[in-house]
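Document type: protein sequence-to-structure record

Subject area: structural biology

Format: plain text, a pair of labelled lines:
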Amino acid sequence: MKARRTLIAEDRVDLTPMIDIVFLLLIYFMVTTSIIKEEADLGVTLPSSMAAASDSPLPEQHYIDILFDGTTLLNGMPTDNPGNPELPNLKRTLLNLKLSSDRAGLKTLIIIQPDSEAFQQSVVNVLNVLKSVGIRSISFGEGLN
């Protein structure tokens, strides 16, 4: 006689409900979490332990004193021979000063302080030098007596 074969049903696990629950949990956590914005850069410079640079800033005002004999002093230092109306040393110094101020982004103010006994031609010579260098911020102050 022939033996009967019994058909044994294979056990299967249905994964569809588990996948549905995982997707539902994923959606729940995505919706309930808040999106945090990153802090914007405030542009604050924090102090450092490094020493400051030894470069001293340029002064914004410079004084040209014109003495009674025609001698010109730039910030108290003599520049040229009073007999030379071209004032080459003053011109060279003012040109370097203007270039440095332009690079630093500073506006340079020149204050002319003529002596009450100084010739007007000496003042005109200084004004000519300032014009040739390109300095336009000029003021007059009380001269030395």
Q: What stands out?
A: The domain at 61-140 is CATH 3.30.420.270 (Nucleotidyltransferase; domain 5).
